[in-house]
Write a structure and sequence with these properties.
heterodimer; A: mainly beta; six-stranded mixed β-sheet; 53% strand; B: mainly beta; seven-stranded mixed β-sheet
């Protein structure tokens, strides 16, 4: 069975500072990894994905994520946070083989203060 | 390309009633998945359809059902509604080539 852990319910950061939202995963095979963002009363927006190749993946709105196979982690990062980045962030994993489902973490609320 | 469209956006139902939610995927996408989102349980997988066949099912009671039509549009039905069914129901579509899923805005169901 696959699973995702987001150890922080909330991350607080000041505008202009770097941010990191943590994610670790567990799958039996090779993973597809994703980050999504959700604004209030909206659906999930795709930010970025890791399939294969470079461990550092760049995505939308200046976000990037680093895949670390040995630590089974896929942390989301941004060099300089904006107040408008405040939202709920979800990490998700899908296994390579077959048509496995997307499994999501519980989500991390990011609050960026002015 | 139009995104994933879910209707209705908001719904209020009474306990014991049934409800049908609709999802139109991105054109060309044949896989449709449904998720229930609640503050306490987070995002929980309901089911996934591909080419009109249910391919995966989450751990929900039989009151939750779904189907997919030949044009890939999908519906989910919840019968005998309970207060605990109040949630945001999200639909996502994906293609065989793309591995990421694209989500609709969701249907906010309130059971009173």
């Amino acid at each position: 069975a696959q699973s995702v852990a987001q150890p922080e319910d909330q991350v607080n950061v000041a505008e202009g500072n770097p941010l990191t939202v943590k994610c670790t995963y567990s799958v039996s095979g090779n993973p597809y990894l994703f980050w999504y963002v959700q604004y209030p009363n909206r659906g999930l927006q795709f930010l970025l994905k890791y399939i294969t190749g470079d461990n550092l993946v760049k995505g939308s709105y200046g976000f990037e994520a680093e895949f670390n196979k040995s630590q089974t982690s896929f942390h989301l990062k941004k060099p300089s946070a904006l107040v408008s980045d405040s939202a709920l962030y979800f990490c998700a994993v899908r296994e390579w083989s077959g048509y496995s489902t997307l499994t999501f973490g519980k989500g991390t609320m990011l609050l960026v203060s002015p | 390309k139009a995104g994933v469209t879910q209707t209705p956006r908001y719904l209020i139902k009474t306990r014991g009633q049934q409800v049908t939610l609709s999802c139109s995927p991105i054109s060309g996408h044949r896989s449709v998945s449904w998720y229930q989102q609640t503050p306490g349980q987070g995002l929980q997988f309901l089911f996934e359809y591909f080419s009109e066949t249910q391919r995966n099912k989450g751990n929900f009671p039989g009151r939750f059902s779904g189907r997919q039509f030949s044009n890939s549009r999908s519906e989910m039905n919840v019968s005998t509604l309970e207060l605990g069914d109040s949630a945001l129901y999200l639909c996502a579509s994906s293609s065989r080539e793309n591995t990421e899923a694209f989500f609709g805005q969701g249907t906010r169901l309130t059971v009173v």
